[in-house]
Amino acid sequence: MNRQRGVSLSGFLLWCVVIGLGATVFLRIVPSAIDHYKLGKDAKAVVGQVSRDATVADVRAAYDKFTEIDNLPLKSSEIEISKENGQIVISYDYEKRIHLFGNVSLLIHYKGSTLN
């Protein structure tokens, strides 16, 4: 007796919906993740660029230059600049709300530091 194998039309449509929703979420999250990666990379570059005895205003000015070039999500007034063990540390903590569809949104909490 031969049994037929394969996917039914309803099963195929269900998988199309699941894959479509997954792709929508993925494509909406990727730009936000890239911005977060650029923010960390640029913050480390700023710390490496300024001297150890730079003032907070100097670090903010250097960070603003990177913000203009890379179109970063945080401005210099939204980051925290401190000194730990003689090293300048830039810390940031922010939330990004991503609209998915209808009244459904995704909230991502990003946190980072140049100390890591």
Number of strands: 3
The sequence of SSEs as H and E is HHEEE
Globally, the shape reads elongated
| Portion in helices | 40-55%
Strand order of the largest sheet: 1-2-3
Mean pLDDT: 91
Helix/strand/pairing category: alpha+beta
β-sheet strand percentage:
25-35%
Radius of gyration: 22 Å
Low-pLDDT segments: none
| Major sheet summary line | 3 strands, antiparallel
Measure the end-to-end span.
Answer: 64 Å
Q: How many helical stretches?
A: 2
Short description:
The protein is built from two helices and three strands. It has 116 residues and is of the alpha+beta class. Strand 1 (80-84) and strand 2 form a beta hairpin.
Structure write-up:
The chain has 116 residues and is an alpha+beta fold. The chain is built from two helices and three strands; from the N terminus they run ααβββ. The protein has a three-stranded antiparallel β-sheet, covered by helices on one side. Helix 1 runs antiparallel to helix 2. The longest helix has 41 residues. The mean pLDDT is 91.
Descriptive tags:
single chain; 116 residues; alpha+beta; 3 strands
Task: Provide the fold topology.
Blueprint: H1 9-49, H2 56-70, E1 80-84, E2 87-101, E3 104-113
Antiparallel strand pairs: 1-2, 2-3
Helix pairs in contact: 1-2
